[in-house]
Amino acid sequence: MAIMGFLVHALPDDLEHVERVVGRMDGMTTYGIHNDQYIVVVAEFPSDKIDDEVNKIKELEGVLTIYATYMTVEDEMDEDGNLETNVDIRKILGKKNTIDFT
Amino acid sequence: MISSTRRENMVQAKTGWIILVAISLVFWVSLSWAGQIKHLVAPDSAADCYACHKKATPIIAENWYESKHGVILVKCFVCHGQPDGQGSVPWAVSPDPKIVCTKCHDPAIKRMKAKFGLAPKCYTCHPFHQNSLHHRAYSKSQSKK
Amino acid sequence: MKLTRREVLKSAAAASAFMALNGTLPDLAGAAPGEPDKWVKAVCRFCGTGCGVMIGVKNGKVVTVKGDPNNHNQGFICLKGAELPSIVNATKSRVTRPYIRKNGQLEPASWDEAMDLVVSKFKAAIKEHGPTSVAYYGSGQALTEESYLANKIWKAGLRCNNVEGNPRLCMASAVGGYYTSFGKDEPIGCYEDIDAATCFFIIGANMSECHPILFKRVAARKQADPNVKIIVVDPRKTNTARIADIHVSFKPGTDLAILNAMAYVIIDEELDNPRFYNKYVNFMTNDKKKVDFKAYQKFLQDYTPEKAEKISGVPADTIRKIAKIFAESSATMSLWTMGLNQRIRGVWANNLTTNLHLLTGHLGKPGATNFSLTGQPNACGGVRDTGSLCHLLPAGRMIKKAKDRAALEKQWGLKPGTIAPKPGLHTIALWNAFSEGKIKAMFVLCTNPAQSLPNVNMYTEGMKRKDNFMVLSEPFMDAETVKYCDVLLPAAFWCEKRGVYGCTERRYSLLMKAIEPIGECRPDVDILLDFAKRMGVDPKVIPFNNVDDIWDEWREVSSATPYNFKGMTRKRQEKESGIRWPCPTEDHPGTCHRYVRGEDPNIPKDYKNKMWFYGTKDGKARLWMRPYAPAAEEPDAKYPMVLTTGRVIDHWHTGTMTMKSPVLRRSFPNAYVEVNIDDAKKHGIKNGDNVLLETRRDKMIFQAKVSDVCRPGLVFVPWFDKNLIINKLTLNAFDKGSKQPEYKICAVRIKKA
Prior knowledge:
The complex is a heterotrimer.
Chain A: E1 2-10, H1 15-24, E2 28-34, E3 38-45, H2 50-58, E4 63-73, E5 76-77, E6 83-84, H3 89-93, E7 98-100
Antiparallel strand pairs in A: 1-3, 1-4, 2-3, 5-6
Chain B: H1 4-31, H2 34-41, H3 49-56, H4 58-66, H5 68-71, H6 76-80, H7 102-116
Helix pairs in contact in B: 3-4
Chain C: E1 2-4, H1 5-22, E2 38-43, E3 52-58, E4 61-67, H2 79-82, H3 84-88, E5 99-102, E6 105-108, H4 111-129, E7 134-138, H5 144-157, E8 163-165, H6 167-170, H7 172-182, E9 199-203, H8 207-210, H9 212-224, E10 229-233, E11 246-248, H10 255-268, H11 274-280, E12 281-284, E13 290-291, H12 293-300, H13 305-312, H14 316-328, E14 332-336, H15 338-341, H16 346-360, E15 369-372, H17 379-384, E16 392-393, E17 397-398, H18 402-411, H19 427-435, E18 441-445, H20 449-452, H21 456-463, E19 469-474, E20 487-490, E21 499-502, E22 507-511, H22 524-535, H23 547-558, H24 570-575, E23 579-580, E24 621-624, E25 641-646, H25 662-667, E26 672-676, H26 677-683, E27 690-694, E28 699-707, E29 714-718, E30 746-752
Helix pairs in contact in C: 4-22, 5-22, 5-23, 7-16, 10-13, 10-14, 10-16, 13-14, 19-21
């Protein structure tokens, strides 16, 4: 499981369109348009798929490029030593899947 | 067969370590983000932007090459400057029209201002990278009105 | 609050992205230069396009530059012009005080010390060996007033005709071509012809890199009318060919055969214009005999497209195609530069291109003209027009003609016989003589011969001699020639002085002074006047208080000749942005087309014919039957490839200026060799490999740039790099007519190093 935070740098004319398309993509969450040129996006995908999925955004019309600012990978290894990449965090922690910030 | 408690402890330790790594990653990446790292690697040919950007950002590079600016060799550094900020033009990912566009297009900008009053950022209407010689956009360019 | 782990991580991801937005991403306003206090009108320091520029000055410093909206370039400048501010501000590399070479090292000196030494050397040489033992070597980048003054000081003051300049290395063949074809130098047409032409014939020119703003104008013309045809004839497929309808690659040096073959096709297809040439053209054989059109047809039998194909490698069908396009279009404009000029057959190549216009009548109407592009910013106005060459006098007059000498002496108010009757030594002969110690003292101004002369090792060895003396006026400390000079004088640079540049289209524009010269630098006009006064030159020769006085005298001198630009007063120059000569009166707008009734003020308004080539005795132009003859050093078994040299857009000439711009330097930090893909495969060379280039004169290693630009059998090396001086490998064979060296072709062999 990988989570990546990044900025999408797009041409001003295409910002809204790009935000809509990205927002509709599974696993992508958008956080608005900023400074008239950037879209803040967080992607959550299996760690072996995340590069391809994020690169799909680069192919969109009007997108200039992508700046990654954050990446975290949490994979699980099973008894045989195989890496399980699509583990839901909730499953790993089971009951203890909440952190108390109070 | 590992007991579930032992597994939980292992995972907790692991996630604790991962959080630490992730936080340092955040600082590392945001302080020295991708662009600057690559530009520092080849300072001697830092102004030969097209050579690397053909591979790094192929869509923009192709757009520029096919555009009017590309044909008449208005190279990247004329508008964007270069990464260490030396030279006549300041380094800018989105150049300031008042500094850059006026060097050549001042008469047209003044005409725009006289006709329409305000002069918004030029590239809101004029696609500087995409004014292609082949694409129909070339003949329908707004600047030809 | 309670959050899932996942939500925490996703928030962290989003937070970091937001942080990047506000924190470290480069933002716009940053390092913007301050808004200038004033804008000063001038001309770009670089190529012969001669774009007007407005220099933005703040607190006595150049902070920015933009195109002059009122000059021909309408506000546009190219990437070199845009970097002028960083070059002007590179003051650490400037020569800021005089130097004298003592024991092999340049030691600082005062102006008096330096000038006294210079004058003593010149006086001693003249006393012991006569006035022909000294010389002046100037530049197409010096201001018009500087060249005019130097020319007068040497020819009328010192009575020495050894006045030469680097235009001998770049434009002499064009001068010879115009002179033999029309009787007078300088193009007929102007830049406005670009906006009216329906066919462009670009040969021996890489306009996109060497005349970018004119290239832009040609591209814009094609954009406006897609029916416009562009033919590019060049052994290299340069960026210029990107807008071409046809690119014709040919064996270097065989363009002579192609041009003759085009003439053959034009007549064969009955596209020639008898009405034009029967009225305006004399047909001349190569040995100066006047013949008729039938003789010309017979001459062309040796240049059928099939025969030309055998010589040049260009398919006969292609030759037919481009000849038809050239002739069928309503207004064809030819454009050429060094590919035709820097050859031992340079004058011939110029003539043969002009022939196509004389045959088809593509002259004297908008868009139809044979337009030679000038390389340097002031080769036309400064050196060609002021006659600052060893055989010329101002305004097209010739030293060998007694009538011309007398007329000039009268205008200058000097005793008859002041000007010596024998022409001086041309550039190659001059530097040969200097290298043999026969010229004892040479004044070099605003040029870099230790990098720019062909077969340069010969000449740098000559500069090392102890029995000759060279004084150099140069702004930059790291110029190659500084290594060899005996006295170095600090010259004011570009906008630190005031004067005129005359560009390709006969347009004279005034550069106004924008900033004060730094250190002890002086404008060359002041340096030359100081030199003349100390030499004891007759004060009647130099009745000038300042640069404007020189301009006024030159204006007056021109008024007795077809150059007549008396109407270009200083006041007018300050108000306007360049005026084209002839311009006889202050209210005359300047001339677009010469030799055309109604446009050229030298022709009476009621003249019987539409055109008058008043430079020739009978008022007719001349079509010269020039044969194909090979280059001076054709490839052979030992050296099987051709080496050619040239420029790239980012650098100007020897790079003394453009290398000061951090951006231009990093765009092309080093010279390289351009190798064709097939040749590279044959020699096992990959992109970036070191390649050894060897000619009969020297050898050098370059990094390879493998591409499809050069045709197989050809390699190209740019000449901007002072650490890889390609002129050590070129040869100094020259055109017998123009005395211009053949930089474009010599034999080379390559090997992976």
